[in-house]
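Per-record layout

source: Rhipicephalus pulchellus
name: Xanthine/uracil transporter
length: 222
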Amino acid sequence: MVEGLGSVLAAAWGAGCGLTSYSENIGAIGITKVASRRVIQYGAAIMLVLGMVGKVGALFAAIPEPIMGGIFIVMFSVVSAVGLSSLQFVDLNSSRNLFVLGASLFLGLCVPDWVRRHPAAIATGSAEVDQVFRVLLSTSMFVGGFVGIFLDNTVPGTPEERGLHGWREHECGGEATGDDGSPGESVTVKECYDPPGSSCIANRIPFSRFLPFSPNFRGFGR
């Protein structure tokens, strides 16, 4: 949500650089095991300074393409593996989970290919609406993700079967618990990912606890 809001503001202000998060960063974190915000901030500052030196840019441009190809192979391999690792707490012996996973992958691959082959099949009477549907239905990530989210939240299944309890215990180290006894978010995680000073500001705004991107958000049911 915050990423989308930032993109809207950047477009309104005429920013000429991309603001979306890149999957390559996930691969870099998986390889280096470094996810500290301070490292990223210092690295960004160093790159900004070095970007003003032409010789440094020429050095990066001189890196052979085979080396860059090898880097990308390793990086995107880790990205793919990270996506598959999301299933580590899911019960893959459950026919319910196998159906959700299989339908998401199958439709995510088939529907975009069919839409690209038959673009005229989408005809709502409005060229703008047709274009929106074509873009969405030709995007594999959207189709697969939408189908997966829809089926996972509509097909009956226990939290243990869906892997929700396993993920909560994994994220909190099996120690922190919420107000209702369920695993909650640890203080260390909150302090690591909250922007500096955001908690103080959010605590002064009562309704901020209902905003999912707010530091003091604890769920809609609390």
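summary: Residues 88-184 form one domain. The first helix runs from residue 2 to 13.
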